[in-house]
Design brief:
Strand content: 15-25%
CATH superfamily of the largest domain: ATPase, nucleotide binding domain
Number of strands: 12
Order of helices and strands: EEEHEEEHEHEEEHHHHEHEH
CATH class of the largest domain: Alpha Beta
Number of domains: 2
Bound molecules: zinc ion
CATH architecture of the largest domain: 2-Layer Sandwich
Number of helices: 9
Distance between the termini: 13 Å
Largest sheet: 5 strands, mixed
Radius of gyration: 19 Å
Structural class: alpha/beta
Helix content: 25-40%
Length: 295
């Protein structure tokens, strides 16, 4: 049994053919930041495949019931009917659509850092903040497929800091990579443009860079604790480009997280793990979910 998996993100659509144990047999990609021509090039790339199942992990928001996607960073795809397009291309095949961070959480739960637990939160920290839930061993989607996109829950409602989404004080406005960089630059740090450079400055002892990462990790610790508080979850797996900076990021995060969760009482036994599957997690999660739905 072969599964075609797509992972639709802001800069590319990652495409893979996987076997029934979710090993990647073949992979390719199509850019998704090239204007209005994504579907024709995607169709051309995948039409020759012989597949039994199709799984699609997409950046949100998505609409699982209607099989449409409207990824924030792909403006030409609004209510794009991805499921119908794929069904036409592969007649007789179902299309399993889920959020990309839900896919990551599912993959980490079944094959990565969260193996063996029934309930967990998966977190992706990069240019944005995403989340996905596994509840009772299954992907938890919410009503429309956008559950746990907690980057846009507010942690500072009276801060006056407006998020791109329109709300005040979203977690993303403090904790995503570019915001930590922006914060540091406002205070006079100018040793680079991105989080990688910021992390290097912090390793070199730059006080502004250390302060920026401290503030970003505090925000993430508050945000994650909020989710754990609400759902009584005791396992968190964190991945994404920012988290790959290593100790310079993890040490302050874990320090703040310990402080935050101490107030909750029932969150004394929480395990936080770095993600294991890295860039393939979305594809593997889409494949796992396609197989779940086919059973
Ligand atoms: Zn927001």
């Amino acid at each position: 049994m072969r599964t075609l998996a797509l992972d639709i993100g802001a800069t590319k659509v990652a495409i893979a053919l996987l076997d029934e144990s979710h090993q990647i047999l073949e992979r390719l990609e199509v850019p998704s930041n090239t204007g209005a021509v994504i579907w024709p090039s995607l169709r051309t790339a995948i039409r020759g495949f012989e597949v039994d199942l199709i799984g699609v992990a997409s950046a949100g928001p998505i609409d699982r019931e209607n099989g449409t996607i409207s990824p924030v960073n792909i403006p030409q795809w609004r209510d794009f009917p991805i499921s119908e397009k794929l069904r036409r291309l592969f007649p007789g095949r179902g299309v399993a659509l889920l959020g990309d961070c839900t896919a990551v959480a599912l993959a980490e739960n079944r094959l990565g850092a969260g193996v063996g637990v029934s309930n967990m939160l998966g977190v992706v920290v990069s240019t944005g903040i995403g989340g996905g839930l596994v509840i009772d061993g299954q992907a938890f989607h919410g009503e429309t497929g956008n559950a746990a996109l907690f980057g846009h829950h507010s942690i500072a409602f009276d801060s006056g800091v407006r998020c791109d989404c329109g709300r005040i004080g979203c977690l993303e406005t403090f904790a995503r990579g570019p915001k930590m960089v922006e914060y540091a630059r406002r205070l006079g740090w100018n040793a680079g443009e991105d989080f990688k450079a910021l992390a290097q400055s912090a390793r070199d002892g730059d006080l502004i860079a250390l302060d920026a990462i401290d503030k970003g990790t505090l925000a993430l610790a508050v945000g994650i604790t909020n989710v754990l508080n609400i759902l009584d979850l005791h396992t968190v797996v964190i991945g994404g480009g920012v988290s790959f900076a290593g100790q310079i990021y993890w040490e302050p995060f874990l320090r703040h997280f310990k402080e935050e969760r101490n107030h909750a009482g029932f969150l004394d036994e929480v395990n936080v793990y770095p993600a294991k599957l890295q860039a393939d997690a979305g594809l593997v999660g889409a494949s796992l979910f396609a197989q779940d739905l086919s059973r």
